[in-house]
Design goal:
This is Putative aldo/keto reductase. The chain has 12 helices and 12 strands. With about 325 residues, the chain is α/β, with parallel strands linked by helices. The protein has one domain: TIM Barrel (Alpha-Beta Barrel).
Length: about 325
């Protein structure tokens, strides 16, 4: 396992992040604690050191299980959790990115994780009702208090993140060092605005659902064209199944698994760390194998052609009009 720094900080993270959303059996299919222990141990033995969870995963069980599994070795890991999602649906202030929810959510996570600080504290999703300067100041206060070391933001428009880090720069607050987005061959939307913004600000990108909700793992490849299959409450489209079939073909040519090909494609982009989530030890070991997979350029082109993705306006328009705008200076 190789390591990289988290954004423009000195914090070193492994190239694969372990997602703890599967830790616990509450609210659906997940892993019991003993399987979680085996998963975490195997990940650590492979050199992994970053674990990602959230206050709401498995109704809080994910944080509780992770806290128990980290006893005696907590400082060897980069522990990341998130806040925003409501702690109490009946409480008007139970959720959101305002200072009150941040404080109460942070104290809850610290208690569950059995630690006195969070290494990376993520804003889970944009709260349109809370001014971003309130959120950034409250996060900076948590850093100043020593309860949070670094901060990141997930599932938020690029313009909001850009404004947040500009405010932080002007006012001497702690800026976001990381961005968390869904990113896979199934979903490349982040390439339009979010990833260019992350590159400009030096943010590390942690990619959730790098297997496209499991579609790219290969287990749905046997579905016939047009057949509807339920996955995480959403029907898998014919387009997604087509992408999965190309991933399977490439995997067969390379002698690896479809999941390893999909993860290798995601991690080939500079600054992107896939979040791998597993319910079993075998799934984890398969995912870890992606670090040994190198995709030749011609296969990358083939995989990306299958997605039918384009950047759209304004990126395509800007590219098309470059000679008109810059004349002889256009490259």
């Amino acid at each position: 396992m190789r390591y990289t720094t988290f954004g423009r900080t000195g914090l070193r993270m492994s190239e694969l992040v372990l997602g703890a959303m599967t830790f616990g059996e509450q609210g659906g299919v997940g892993a019991p604690i003993e399987e979680c222990r085996r998963i975490l141990d195997a990940y650590a033995e492979a050199g992994g050191n970053a674990v990602d969870t959230a206050i709401n995963y498995r109704g809080g069980a994910s944080e509780e299980i992770l806290g128990e599994l980290l006893v005696g070795r907590r400082d060897r890991f980069v522990v990341a959790t998130k806040y925003t999602v409501t702690r109490d649906p009946a409480d008007p202030n139970g959720g959101g990115n305002h200072r009150k929810n941040l404080r109460l959510s942070l104290e809850t996570s610290l208690r569950r994780l059995r630690t006195d600080h969070i290494d990376i504290y993520w804003v889970h999703i944009w709260d349109r009702h809370t001014p971003i300067d309130e959120t950034m100041r409250a996060l900076d206060d948590a850093v100043t208090a020593g309860k949070v070391l670094y901060i990141g933001v997930s599932d938020t428009p690029a313009w909001v993140v850009s404004r947040a880090n500009t405010l932080a720069e002007w006012r001497g607050w702690t800026p976001f060092a990381g961005l968390q987005v869904p990113y896979s061959l199934i979903n490349r939307d982040a390439e339009r605005e979010l990833m260019p913004m992350a590159e400009a600000y030096g943010l590390t990108v942690t990619a959730w659902s790098p297997l496209g909700g499991g579609v790219l793992s290969g287990k749905y490849g046997s579905a016939a064209p047009g057949e509807r299959t339920r996955l995480n409450r959403d029907a898998i489209s014919d387009r997604d199944l087509g992408v999965a079939r190309v991933v399977q073909d490439v995997a067969g040519e390379l002698g690896v698994t479809p999941a390893q090909v999909a993860l290798a494609w995601t991690r080939r982009r500079n600054g992107v760390l896939p979040i791998i989530g597993a319910r079993t030890l075998d799934q984890l070991r398969d995912n870890l194998g992606c670090t040994a997979v190198t995709l030749p350029p011609e296969l990358v082109t083939r995989l990306e052609a299958a997605t039918g993705f384009d950047l759209g306006f304004p990126a395509d328009f800007i590219a098309q009009t470059t000679p008109w705008v810059l004349g002889a200076a256009a490259l």
